[in-house]
Amino acid sequence: MLRLVRKEGDSVKNIKLARIDSRLSHGKVVSYWTEYLNLDTVIIANDRVYQDDFEQAVMNLTMPEGIAAHYLRLDQVKNYVENNQNEDIFLIVESPRDLEKILEKDYFIDRVNIGIIHLSQGKKLLTEEVAVDEKDLEIFANLISNDIEVFIQLSPFACKRDLSDFFIEA
User: Fold this and answer.
1) Are β-strands 89-93 and 15-20 bridged in parallel, bridged antiparallel, or unpaired?
2) Angle at alpha carbon of residue 41, lines to 39 and 44, rounded to 5°
C-alpha cells in the first residue's frame, strides 16, 4: 500500500492537475483543461506510449497550439517536474496504478481528476464513465485519506463529483 506522508511545503506546485484517463489525450480533453487552468505543458506519463512514435503523433493532433507535450515513462516524471519548476503542468496517466507508481517516487500531487476509466475484465462500473476494481478503490481511498482532492469530471464544464462521496466511513 502506498504510504504518503504530507509535510508542509511538500506539494509539487507546478503540477496543477493530475488526470487519470484510459484514453490519455483524446479529443478536446487537453484543450479544455489546459485553457481552463491556464496551463502551458502537458505530460503524458505512460511507459507504452513513450515508446510509440505513431501514438504520440496521433495524440499530438489533440494538443492545442502553444502547449508543449512531453511523453515520459512513469519513472521520468519526478525528474522532469523537479527540473522544470517554471512550467505549469497538466499530468495525464492511464490508470490509478500508474499514478500510484509516480507518487511512490516521493513527491505529492494535490488534485487528481478522474476522466474515463474503461470497463475491462475484473472491473465494475462506479459511474457510467469510470470502472474500477478493488486495487483502484484502495488507491483512491489512500489518496483521499492523505488529503488529496480526488474527483470525477469529464471536462471543466461537466458536473464535478467528489470521489470521497463514494466511500462510507466505518
Assistant:
1) parallel
2) 120
Packing angle, helices 96-103 and 134-145, rounded to 10: 40
What value does the CA radius of gyration of the chain take, rounded to a whole number of Å?
A: 15
Dist CA 127 CA 165 (whole Å): 12
Distance (Å, rounded) from C-alpha 61 to C-alpha 103? 29
Nearest Cα to 23, choosing from 53, 54, 58? 58
Q: What cell does 126 get?
A: 462506479
What 54-57 contacts at long range (C-beta under 8 Å, 24+ apart), as own/partner pairs, is none
Distance separating alpha carbons of residues 110 and 136, to the nearest angstrom: 18
Q: What is the pLDDT of residues 49-104, one digit of tens each?
A: 999 999 999 999 989 889 999 999 999 999 999 898 888 999 999 999 999 999 88
Whose cell is 490519455? That residue is: 24
The 3-state DSSP class for residue 107 equals coil
Count of C-beta atoms within a 10 Å radius of residue 86: 8
Residue (of 122, 77, 118) closest to 99 by Cα position: 77
Reading the block at residue 11, the C-alpha cell is 506539494
pTM over 0.70: yes
